Amino acid sequence: MFLRRHRKHVRGETYEYWSLVKTIRTARGPRHQIVARLGKLDGAEITTARSWQDLDALLEGRQPNRQLELLSVGRQPPAACWREVDVSGVRVERLRQFGRVYLGLALWRRLGLHTLLKELFEPGQEEIGWEVLACVLSLGRFCAQPSELSLAERWYNDTALEDLLGVPLEKINESRLYRGLDALLPHKDALCQHLLGKYRDWFGVRYEFLLYDVTSTYFEGLAEKNKKAAHGYSRDKRPDCRQVCIGLVVTPEGLPVAYEVFAGNRNDVTTLEEIVRLMEEKYGQAGRVWVVDRGMVSEENLEWLRKRGATYLVGTPRSQLKAHEAALLEKAGWQEACPGLEVKLLTTDEGGEQFILCRSPDRKAKEAAMLQRQLDRLQSQLGKIHASLQAKPERDLEKVGRRIGRWQGKNPAAARVLSVTVEKNARGRARGLSITERTEKLEWARLIHGAYLLRTNHPGEDPAQLWRWYMQLTQAESAFRTGKSDLHLRPVFHQKTERVEAHILVSFLSLALWRVLEQWMRAKGLGDCARQLLLELDELRSLDVVLPVRTSEAAERTELRLRMVARPEPALAMLLERLGLELPQRPKFVERLKM
Fold first, then answer.
1. CA-atom Rg of the chain in angstroms
2. Is the predicted pLDDT of residue 357 greater than 90, yes or no?
3. CA-to-CA distance for 513 and 530, rounded, in angstroms?
4. Counting beta carbons within 10 angstroms of the beta carbon of residue 545, is it exposed (0 to 12), middle (13 to 18) or buried (19 or more)?
5. Residues forming beta bridges with residue 422, ordered by sequence position
6. Strand partners, 358
């Protein structure tokens, strides 16, 4: 779900309102459906004018120092300070991005990461605290900075972080950020443990279900100094580049719990035991269900999980549907799990396992159409090869085989149900093709369209509930998409093993900020599309207003520089109010210069 802004023009006046929208699938493709209208915006204002000195309280969502408020009871507010201003010389300078970094810093502070890291890092002679550098690195990735170089040379200067963190621009450089990565990496386990506690306190996460999946990210460069960099199956369609694999564990809400970095040529199946053992050693074993995709498990994995007393819910290869053909054909026993999907529970006597058979008419129609397109395309190309061989027989049979194999590789589903034989003439040359349908395989392919099988040793007897648990696995896939598309996990420019793992740790922390923001939005009734909210916040800037003034002392002329945050538009002000995120309202006096 995401937010959509609407504008309506009536008699020369513009009215704005928000609606909460979700994407649904229809027979004509994806469509947007309005879930709720958030109403007409009437420019809600923040009642308390808080200053830049209250930044800690603003970012952490708490009230300012009550003792100072009590001391000020009964006092008159400060008198207005009037100056004569040369209006022709008023100007605005130092425009900086404010909204996105302010929100990211608020999430960082409310998760308590600043206090945790301050406790973890031993104080030394560093000029800038390591906890501050860790914050800068994570916020840079949260704001889609691909590298520390771009962060130091451009991004930091374009944002208001210098004012928010109190770290001068000249202190942020590539070398210092690299040292910050080196200092952060040893505290990976403590950070993951801290986030677990925060998820539990803030959102009531219970960790009964853990979703596990693996992705890869590739390197720019040879990565010769990285022990884990290797060529392997690339999810990024970059088989030419070396890569590492990342195993990520998330909750059903999509909150990242832990991760591990594996060699780039590591088979996904071999990572499951390692990640399960790691999670059990750190966080215990009791009352946890592992939800894993079918490409991540093998019979050896499942046997190992059963011996450890672990509970699992996994997908299975489609080849296992053959053993349940009779149940698939039976009309009895099906129940609706959701509109357009039916499930059936199949019990077995082996090891307390049971299977959940699932079928979807919409998915069946889609897969049937895909198969038919492949059949039409492959038969058309094979027909062209047949016609060319009839016109001119080919002596090189291997060449003919390569032509056939090229199109079979492009249409694998159709190739499985078509039999192709090369016909030869009396001189041993290829004079045509014999193409026949494998009737049994084609009928079976059409029977299992839209069907898939789940496998579990969970004692639950409601197949619809088990199916819903498995569908939460999309949260892990969504986390990978967010990490790669919005947080620039890929490509990796670092070459050393430790730096690469620190880069992934920073991406993990940024993903935690992103997912916490989505949970925060959902709790406030603002949907769960953080991307749309951040785009709205990009309009919010900080700026310096320079005022040429004349004082009463001998008509001396000076310039006053006031740093402030631009007042948000009414629509954005409403979003901030719904989130409970307050902005500094009073301008900050920066300097007075003589003219």
1. 31
2. yes
3. 10
4. middle
5. 433
6. 343, 452
Output the CA–CA distances (angstroms, integers) from residue 548 to 80, 84, 544, in the order listed.
Answer: 18, 8, 13
Residue 290, classed as helix, strand or coil, is strand
Average pLDDT (260-289) is: 84
Tell me which H or E stretch contains 30. Answer: strand 29-40
Sequence letter at residue 156: Y
Count of C-beta atoms within a 10 Å radius of residue 354? 20
pLDDT digits (tens, 9 = 90+) for 523-577: 888 888 899 899 999 999 999 988 888 766 555 678 888 888 998 888 888 888 8
Cβ–Cβ < 8 Å for 36, 29: no
Q: How far apart are CA 356 and CA 466, in angstroms?
A: 8
DSSP letter, residue 321? G
Strand 13-26 relative to strand 29-40, pairing = antiparallel
Give the tens place of pLDDT for each residue, 362-417. 999 999 999 999 999 999 999 999 999 999 999 899 999 999 999 999 999 999 99
Burial class (CB in 10 A: 0-12, 13-18, 19+), 555: exposed
Residue 267, C-beta contacts closer than 8 angstroms, at least 6 positions apart: none
Write out 87-143 in H/E/C secondary structure.
HHHCEEEEEEECHHHHHHHHHHHHCCHHHHHHHHCCCCCCCCCHHHHHHHHHHHHHC
Which of these, 13, 111, 119, 123, lies nearest to 59 by C-alpha position? 111
How far apart are the C-alpha atoms of 355 and 455, rounded to whole Å? 5
Whole-number average pLDDT of the chain: 85
User: Which range is least confidently modeled, 171-175, 437-441, 551-555?
Assistant: 551-555
C-beta pairs of 395-399 under 8 Å, 24+ apart in sequence:
395/428, 395/429, 395/430, 397/422, 397/424, 397/430
DSSP assignment of 149-181 equals HHIIIIIHHHBTHHHHH---GGG--HHHHHHHH
Q: Are strands 289-292 and 311-315 parallel, antiparallel or unpaired?
A: parallel
Neighbours of 154 (CB within 10 A): 11
* CA torsion through residues 221, 222, 228, 232, sign: positive
Instruction: Give burial (CB, 10 Å; 0-12/13-18/19+) of 64.
Output: middle
Of 209, 259, 217, 211, whose CA–CA distance to 237 is shortest? 217
pTM tops 0.90, yes or no: no
> 252: cis peptide before it, omega within 30°?
no
Contact predicate 312/353, CB 8 Å: no
For tokens 């002679």, the residue is: 125
Q: How many CB atoms lie within 10 A of CB 331?
A: 5
57 pLDDT more than 90: no
